[in-house]
């Protein structure tokens, strides 16, 4: 059964969307939240479990210090206050991916609260607009196991039985919850996307998670409600789960706006429920009726003592915060003199860190950009890999550029040097030596080639003698051909003009 | 006897049974309602002991910040982990088909 949808533009002209985002970040700690089991992605099923994360009787959890620190650092990076004393809580529900029959979480005492993220939302005509998204809370909890549904239809509801792998159960999660974001109008989907993108960048910059949406280490739930335009009220919300790419965040908001509008237009009430996002078809379908918090029968976790971060500890962690990614980007753009488009391409290609390091290794910013976004981006694309995974370091690229600038190689040869480095033939200097790529700077050999070219092209030589310097191009070409490209064209020109003056 | 008698309706019992994933007949719900009321009454008797000025205690000892370092410890083998499973397939716990959806 497909939903009736109102055209998006029509919907946002008559209704005000309110947006809320819950983002779960799986921390990149070595061990789980409450036990010493490892957390590596992709291990054989049920090889990373112990009595604690399997919820066996008598086992006792102990919180992971690094996970608590990561939670505090995320909170601080989001401008949150850090709780002086907070407890864990049990969230009770029966579902086979949670072997304890409760999830250890935090309820009314989150470790971080009352923050914000200033989100740079790209504008259509270029530039960005800053939208402040208020953070209600960030709290610590644990991930669930992974279910594999076995059955004929392949759908959860049609599955005959399920198979559960508890390797993921107990991996630390930080859930970051926004307050409702209103007043966005038609831009709600873009803001949702930009928020998740910027939060992801921040998490990566903090080094607390690899934040890979495709592997589920950062996951977004999208809350949406509509209220009649100008009413200033909040409507009934739905919570769309399983939104696992930035593009899907945008699409899911758009879809729910159209669906809610159709429900409200028909004079019906929006049903408060979770919705499942379907990446393939781009629609949401009804999930379970949203439980009240009461139904989870939260109560303080008796097996874990409260966490009371001292103010000294919090300040120490504040000192480890990186420069916010958007601030850093603006600073580098200014320092490098990149246009907005150049900067966007740089970020999009994942070349920001690489160029920064290449510049630190001595290359001019534009030269570094030229190599990474030109030749190397092409090679990464051909190999179906990311720039960062290429077998070439920023130091190599800086060295290649230095070789060009000191005249050891020209641009064409420099590309061959990079090819050699990528093929594992060694450093740029080793490749130049092994492949014999250096331009011939021996004036004797070059001079002979120039003489030969002059002798072979007497008409051109005469023109140059008559002052038609532009004609030198033909002779330079002949010499370069003779030298198989391994000559410095500027030096060749110099020699020609010397000889014919 | 406390002054206020706790009342639990058959509907509330049905809701609790649903949360606890227990299938109860109408007759069982009727029978359990007054029994649960007695349990609540018993717990409510604590209200008479502590006044509003006494905060609820979740931990009897004044301990804070018991944390462990992020250092891996040996896990169980898959065989050990699965030894208590009612059924195993593909090195995973086989469980009845899932009726609700993921949390
Ligand atoms: Zn464990």
Layout of secondary structure:
The complex is a heterodimer of chains A (501) and B (103).
Chain A: H1 8-14, E1 15-26, E2 63-64, H2 65-77, E3 81-82, E4 89-92, E5 102-105, E6 112-122, E7 128-142, E8 146-151, E9 159-165, E10 172-178, H3 188-206, E11 218-228, E12 238-243, H4 246-265, E13 273-278, E14 283-289, E15 299-300, H5 311-318, H6 325-336, H7 340-348, H8 352-360, H9 365-383, H10 394-405, H11 411-422, H12 428-435, H13 443-456, H14 458-465, H15 472-482, H16 489-500
Parallel strand pairs in A: 12-13
Antiparallel strand pairs in A: 1-10, 1-11, 3-6, 4-5, 4-15, 6-7, 7-10, 8-9, 11-12, 13-14
Helix pairs in contact in A: 3-4, 8-9, 8-10, 10-11, 11-12, 13-15, 13-16, 15-16
Chain B: H1 10-19, H2 26-44, E1 67-68, H3 78-82, E2 88-89, E3 92-96
Antiparallel strand pairs in B: 2-3
The complex binds zinc ion (ZN).
Cα shape of chain B: flat
Q: Indicate the percent of residues in helices of chain A.
A: 25-40%
Gyration radius of chain A, in Å = 30 Å
State the major sheet of chain B.
Answer: 2 strands, antiparallel
The interface involving the most residues is between: A-B, 68 and 40 residues
Give a written overview of the molecule.
Chain B: GO terms for molecular function: ATP binding; glutaminyl-tRNA synthase (glutamine-hydrolyzing) activity. Chain B: Heterotrimer of A, B and C subunits. Chain B: It catalyses: L-aspartyl-tRNA(Asn) + L-glutamine + ATP + H2O = L-asparaginyl-tRNA(Asn) + L-glutamate + ADP + phosphate + 2 H(+); L-glutamyl-tRNA(Gln) + L-glutamine + ATP + H2O = L-glutaminyl-tRNA(Gln) + L-glutamate + ADP + phosphate + H(+). The complex is a heterodimer of chains A (501) and B (103). Chain A is α+β, with helices and mostly antiparallel strands and 501 residues long. Chain A folds into 3 domains: 8-317, no CATH class; 325-435, no CATH class; 443-500, Arc Repressor Mutant, subunit A (Orthogonal Bundle), CATH 1.10.10. Chain A has helices spanning 8-14, 65-77, 188-206, 246-265, 311-318, 325-336, 340-348, 352-360, 365-383, 394-405, 411-422, 428-435, 443-456, 458-465, 472-482, 489-500, and strands at residues 15-26, 63-64, 81-82, 89-92, 102-105, 112-122, 128-142, 146-151, 159-165, 172-178, 218-228, 238-243, 273-278, 283-289, 299-300. In chain A, the strands form 3 sheets. A 9-stranded mixed beta sheet of chain A has the order 3-6-7-10-1-11-12-13-14. In chain A, strands 5-4-15 form a 3-stranded antiparallel beta sheet, with no helix packed on it. In chain A, strands 8-9 form a two-stranded antiparallel sheet. Chain A is elongated and about 95 Å long. With 103 residues, chain B is an alpha+beta fold. Chain B has a domain at 10-48: Histone, subunit A, CATH 1.10.20.60. In chain B, 33% of the residues lie in helices and 9% in strands. In chain B, strands 2-3 form a two-stranded antiparallel ribbon. In chain B, α1 (10-19) packs across α2 (26-44). The chains are: A alpha+beta (501), B alpha+beta (103). The interface between A and B is large, with 68 and 40 residues. The complex binds zinc ion (ZN). Zinc ion (ZN) is lined by residues 32, 35, 37, 49-50, 52-53, 170 of chain A. Zinc ion is lined by residues 32, 35, 37, 49-50, 52-53, 170 of chain A.
């Amino acid at each position: 059964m497909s939903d009736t949808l109102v055209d998006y533009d029509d919907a946002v002209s008559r209704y005000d969307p309110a947006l809320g985002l819950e983002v779960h970040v799986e921390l990149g700690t070595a061990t789980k939240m409450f036990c010493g089991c490892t957390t590596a992605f992709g291990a054989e099923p049920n090889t990373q479990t112990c009595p604690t994360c399997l919820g066996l009787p008598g086992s006792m959890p102990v919180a992971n210090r690094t996970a608590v620190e990561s939670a505090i650092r995320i909170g601080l990076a989001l401008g949150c206050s850090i709780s002086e004393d907070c407890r864990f809580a049990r969230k009770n529900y029966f579902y086979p991916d949670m072997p304890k029959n409760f999830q250890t979480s935090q309820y009314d005492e989150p470790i971080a609260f009352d923050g914000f993220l200033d989100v740079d939302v790209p504008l259509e005509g270029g530039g960005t607009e800053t939208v402040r998204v208020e953070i209600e809370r960030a709290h610590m909890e644990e991930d669930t196991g992974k279910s594999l549904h076995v059955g004929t239809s392949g759908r959860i509801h049609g599955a005959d039985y399920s198979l559960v792998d508890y390797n993921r159960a107990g991996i630390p999660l930080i859930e970051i919850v926004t307050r409702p974001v209103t007043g966005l109008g038609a831009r709600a989907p873009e803001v949702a996307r930009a928020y998740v993108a910027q939060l992801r960048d921040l998490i990566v910059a903090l080094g607390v998670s690899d934040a890979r949406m495709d592997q589920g280490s950062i996951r977004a739930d999208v809350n949406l409600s509509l209220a009649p335009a100008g009413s200033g009220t909040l409507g009934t919300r739905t919570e769309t789960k399983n939104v696992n790419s930035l593009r899907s965040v945008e699409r899911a908001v758009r879809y729910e706006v159209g669906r809610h509008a159709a429900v409200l237009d028909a004079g019906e009430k929006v049903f408060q429920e979770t919705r499942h996002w379907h990446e393939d078809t781009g629609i949401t379908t009804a999930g379970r009726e949203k439980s009240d918090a009461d139904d989870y029968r939260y109560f303080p976790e008796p097996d874990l003592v409260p966490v009371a971060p001292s103010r000294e500890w919090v300040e120490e962690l504040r000192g480890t915060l990186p420069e916010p990614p958007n601030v850093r980007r603006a600073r580098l753009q200014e320092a490098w003199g990149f246009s907005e488009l150049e900067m966007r391409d740089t970020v999009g290609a994942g070349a920001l860190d690489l160029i920064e390091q290449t510049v630190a290794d001595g290359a001019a910013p534009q030269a570094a950009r030229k190599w990474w976004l030109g030749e190397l981006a092409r090679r990464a694309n051909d190999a179906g890999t990311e720039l960062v995974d290429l077998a070439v370091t920023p130091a190599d690229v800086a060295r290649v550029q230095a070789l060009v600038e000191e005249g050891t190689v020209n641009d064409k040869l420099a590309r061959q040097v990079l090819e050699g480095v990528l093929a594992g033939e060694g450093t740029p200097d080793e490749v130049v030596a092994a492949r014999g790529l250096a331009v011939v700077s021996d004036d004797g050999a070059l001079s002979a080639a120039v003489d030969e070219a002059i002798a072979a092209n007497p008409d051109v030589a005469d023109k140059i003698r008559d002052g038609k310097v532009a004609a030198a191009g033909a002779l330079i070409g002949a010499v370069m051909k003779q030298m198989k490209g391994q000559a410095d064209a500027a030096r060749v020109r110099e020699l020609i003009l010397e000889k014919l003056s | 006897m406390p002054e206020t008698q706790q009342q639990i309706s058959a509907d509330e019992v049905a809701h609790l049974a649903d949360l606890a994933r227990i299938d109860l007949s109408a007759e069982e719900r009727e029978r359990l309602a007054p029994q649960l009321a007695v349990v609540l009454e018993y717990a409510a008797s604590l209200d008479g002991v502590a006044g509003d000025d006494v905060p609820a205690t979740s931990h009897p000892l004044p301990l804070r910040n018991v944390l462990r370092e992020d250092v891996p410890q040996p896990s169980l083998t898959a065989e050990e982990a699965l030894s208590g499973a009612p059924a195993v397939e593909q090195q995973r716990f086989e469980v009845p088909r899932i009726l609700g959806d993921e949390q």
